[in-house]
Amino acid sequence: MSDGVSVAATAFRSAYGVGDTPEQAVEAALARLETRAGGQGVGFAYVNEAMWPLYGRLISLLRQGSGVPRWIGTVGGGIMTGGREFYDRPAIALMVADLPDSAVQQIEPEGPPPRGAGLGVVHGDPRSPELADGLMALAGAESYLVGGLAGGSDHLATFGERLYDAPRGHGLSGVLLDQALPVAVGLSQGCSPVGPVRRITRAERNVIATLDDRPALEVLKEDVGELLARDLRRAAGYIHVAFPLQNSDRSDYLVRNLVGIDPDRGLVAVGEAVEPGQAMMFVRRDPTSARQDLERMLSETLSRAGEAPKAALYFSCVARGRHLFGETGLEAGLVQAALAQANGGAEVPMVGFFGNGEICHDRLYGYTGVLTLFL
């Protein structure tokens, strides 16, 4: 796609803006963003729901105010920049990669998958029925995807060449970056197992009748322990179902919600279609285990990178952040602290958002954090 030397030498710059109005937030961010001549590169922009009144004009404002012609981004249930998180007040986080045009291919919901190998940074519409197929088609055999699904509660939109505020095509927009750009990717699970891996032995659609040839509800009570088993209402939002991933080089699993139980027939319903023979386990989501796994992932990914990161993207679940850790800025702060430590104490440009699902490689996750380091 491009000259590898120039891609590897890519510079990154970031800025953020907060204001009483969306216009003030954009003005503050653009004032902080270092401008450069040349008219190339790609910008990443993440905004919270309070920015919605400005969505129709956002892309043109960013192009005019920055000189960067190509912007991609989405709305999140919250956004992050550096070690900060913003949820309710109008806020925008920007990062620009000064890449040559030849190193960037646009991904649009209605277009065919771009050709070539590299890192795809994508944002998806959770309402699109073709999303899973789109992920597989874009990832293919040579590309690696990172990103997340739009995370607003009332407003869902992604943007690339233009704003997409309704499901179109495969529902994914973003960019494919040249494979010569060095990166490292890490995935942090927000849950930890509470029992052994089980085998689904009888099920229909999303309802599990038996696990290891025993009533599913009986197994659930055994795995979660006596305290929760006495009152399964306490398990709501705390206990989930995880499906281990085959052919993974890590202990990865996809987490789905526990959506219902039938105490009379011993049935368990989950937020995913299942089949007999499939492996699964019960997991818990709590701040302590999520923080421990995040710290593990940060340490392993930075060690694997082998050098100080120039910049980072971080995509987290809308159920994490302040909702999980009980403190605004704790998750983003942990990420930035680790990046800065690897960079001799200096802050590393980092932006991201809290979404309705996280994308890593060719899969859609939940309750996770996905970190991408640019090296």
Describe the structure.
The structure is a single chain. With 375 residues, the chain is α+β, with helices and mostly antiparallel strands. It has two domains: 4-188 and 291-374, no CATH class; 192-284, Elongation Factor Tu (Ef-tu), domain 3, CATH 2.40.30. Helix content is 23%, strand content 37%. It is built from nine helices and 26 strands. The chain has helices at 4-8, 22-32, 55-66, 131-139, 216-224, 226-230, 287-305, 322-325, 330-342; strands at 12-18, 42-48, 70-76, 78-81, 84-86, 91-97, 104-107, 118-124, 143-149, 158-159, 163-164, 172-178, 183-188, 192-193, 198-204, 207-211, 214-215, 239-244, 253-262, 267-270, 279-284, 311-317, 350-355, 358-361, 363-365, 369-374. The chain has a six-stranded mixed beta sheet with strand order 1-6-2-3-10-11. Strands 5-4-23-22-26-13 form a six-stranded mixed beta sheet, covered by helices on one side. It has a six-stranded mixed beta sheet with strand order 7-12-8-9-24-25, with helices on one face. Helix 7 runs parallel beside helix 9 (330-342). The radius of gyration is 21 Å and the shape is globular. The model has no long low-confidence stretch (mean pLDDT 90).
